[in-house]
Amino acid sequence: MNVPAVSVDMLRRVIGSLPRSIVVTDADGVIVIWNDMAAQLFGWTEAEVAGRSISTVLVPAGEDDSPPVPLDAIEAGESWLVERTVNRRDGSTIRVRAVTRVLHGADGKVEYVVAASEDLSEILLLEQSAQEATRLERVQRQRLELVSAVNEALERSTDLPDLMTQVTSVVVPQLGDWCTLHIFPTPDAAEPVVEVAHVDPSMVRYARELQQRFPYDPESTSGVAKVVRTGESEFYPEITPDLVRDLDTTPEAQRIVDELALRSAIAVPLRKHGQVLGVLQLVMSAGQRRYTEEDLTLAQAVAARIAATLDNRRLREAQARTAAVDARLAALGWQLAAAADLEQVLQVITEDAGEVMDADAVEIGLVFDAEHVHAVRAGTPLTPEAIARFDLYEISGPSAMTRAVRTGERQYVEEGDRDPMQPEARALIASPLFDGEHHSIGVLVFIWHHERRFDEFDRTAIETLSRLCGAAIRRAETSGYSNQLGELTAGMAAARTTGDVAELLRDHGARALRASLANLRLLDPSTKTLRGVIDSTLPRDIAARFQAVHLDDGLPLTDAARDDVSIWVPNPEEYAVSYPDVVPIASEAGIRATAAIPLHDSQGTVIGAVAFAWNAAMDFDAPLRARLATLCDVAAQTIERVSLYEAEHALITSMQRQLLTPLPEVGSLELAAFYEPAAAAVGMGGDWYDAIPLPDGSLVAIVGDIVGHGVEAVASMARLQHLITGLVRTGTPLEEVFRRANAMARPSDPIFATCVLLHIDVAAHRLGVLSAGHPWPLLRTPDGAVHPLTGGRQALIGAAMRSTEMAYVDLPPGSLVLAYTDGLIERRTETIEESIARLADAFAEVDDATPARTVLEQLVVNVAQDHDDAATTDDIAAMVVRSLA
Hints:
Layout: H1 5-16, E1 21-26, E2 31-34, H2 36-42, H3 46-49, H4 54-57, H5 71-76, E3 80-87, E4 93-104, E5 110-119, H6 120-156, H7 160-171, E6 178-183, E7 193-198, H8 201-213, H9 223-230, E8 234-236, H10 241-246, H11 251-260, E9 264-272, E10 275-284, H12 293-338, H13 342-356, E11 361-366, E12 372-375, H14 384-387, E13 391-394, H15 400-407, E14 411-413, E15 427-434, E16 440-448, H16 456-494, H17 498-512, E17 517-524, E18 529-532, H18 540-545, E19 548-550, H19 556-563, E20 567-569, H20 572-578, H21 583-589, E21 593-600, E22 606-614, H22 622-659, E23 669-676, E24 687-693, E25 699-706, H23 710-729, H24 734-745, E26 753-761, E27 766-772, E28 778-780, E29 786-788, E30 793-794, E31 807-810, E32 816-820, H25 832-844, H26 852-864, E33 876-883
Parallel strand pairs: 27-30
Antiparallel strand pairs: 1-2, 1-5, 3-4, 4-5, 6-7, 6-10, 8-9, 9-10, 11-12, 11-16, 12-13, 14-15, 15-16, 17-18, 17-22, 18-19, 20-21, 21-22, 23-33, 24-25, 25-26, 26-27, 27-31, 28-29, 28-32, 32-33
């Protein structure tokens, strides 16, 4: 082929500058020009293809059926467009589009054929990319619309059920034919609540039937339970029979899958802060659509939005719940702080503590011993008598109340469970109460009549509530015991005998320590025996065997006194080990625990011992031991003091009785006198009586009361008695006796006293009265009438006195005259006139035939011993004279 060089060169340069694959052949199809872009497209260099037929280089791929180049088009000089797949040099194929045109010579014949080719795969990719971008834009818009719709549903929901209904209705059908939403209503809920939506409403009812037939199983190896446990999504783009079999489902479950025509499924967790709040489950059923990874991503985005809303809702609910409980706890705290004693504290707890937890009832059990829990009755005083009527639960028993005390751990009875001692309760919490040593002192029981489960908030609130109530009970118990100890100390300060001390220990022990027995024994060093002070409360036959016990008798009481140690026997098992010989006696007496504590005087010497006994086993913890030690210290100090008093009292009483002269015998008169020293005030001996016959056959009877007590009062009484009787015996006019005795006593050492002088003149049938500030004598005439003798009044002895005329009244035969000191009648709760009137009523009831001595004894029993709590305890001196003539 003869082509001008310049033409070819020019053609090459033009073709080489083009950005497309250019191949030039002559009219016979021999390659003339193959530019660099053609080399890149097809893999051959120009040197490799130059001079070769185009048909041998660009061989169509085996399956390409593109028609050959139309010859008529070549002949006509037209251009044409060809798309075909050809083999490249490396054996790969490429789809190209070629625009072909012919070039004619000067003679009009075809000289060259020029083909411009391009890679169709790049164009297709660009087109596909454009289509994909359009699709992704549409999908993204749909996703945003769906998430927006979910957000709106979440925002307009009013509560959890409404939220679930709103969300599932929005998701279907945009994200599935089925939507099932499983949500745990509380963090500690065992099972989720479920809401279902379906494109076919009739299928919703069927879905609920399936839920009842196949309830939630937290141990399931697939489905919702697995997503809850793992927190990972489950994605089944294609549900095939093989997949259903691989999931190890039952034949019935496989049949249901086939009936529902389930084709594709997604289950994603509603997770927030690492906690699974529920599961969103989506299903595609009949149809060609299947879930993709993009759908999984969208489902996860929807689930995250639901989880965030649930978490915020829970947070708001928790904040509101916390604020409400805090307010109730504060109100309860104020009420408990205002409670005056333990009974009021317990009443506040039973009536108001339940509101804190919205409980239907609250019960309290207190631990008074090591064997029982005492169910407290609200409003009942905690006296031993009342406690004895409380319901008892054995600490070893199976109830939640006793388990809480026994283990020291809170007990929860939740939905589906029952407590054997509370069959009516559908839910229950038993929370133990502790003292400062973390010993169980009781238990709070909160009861609900409906089923419920307890979440972490409930557990925290119960713990706070239990601590608040436990602290109030401990504070009230401590305050109550302090008050009781104060009362005991006051009682001990007023005690005048060891019997008083023993009675105070017995009463205080029963009330404050809830002991069944308090036995005070004093040591007789000479015989090394312990003697009782008051009658024992043990059964009579047992008490008789232990009236006096030797220090070597092997009893807790004797060991405590002999060895100067406190003995603790907390239960029958310890009795059997340490005091086997005492076990039958203790069992017979109902004693199951004993504490024996030695008593010491101010020099540290053992002076006795006290034994406390209980009808149940006891935990002798540090607080109880401290209380017993304090109690016995107070008792020991009081015993040392009253022992000195009793010795003084015995001495004074002996002196007093020796100074009281025997009554004379007067033929026409019956005389009787009575004297009783006071039993509750140190220094007796101020009351006295005397009777002096006169030469004319009449009688002077005198009853007096010295102001003061003790040895000084006895001495004053003896001096005044001798002055008055001496004046009477020496014939001093009776009207002058008191004035002269007063004048004779005042210069040396004034004596202050009241005194009454009666002149009984039987022959003249008259009775004279002279009273120096003394209570009125009483005259009972034979007709039964009682007359106060108010005449002959003058100032008490010790004050300035003047002579007073004696007042005389008639004295019929058979009359009784009574003179007395104020110890017989005086009461702090009534006036002296009321006291005398009370005595007059008793005197009126006396039988005329009753001997004078018996009359006095009856009056003392009926009047003097009829003391109320405010009664004055004092000496009693009285004299009765009956006129016989």
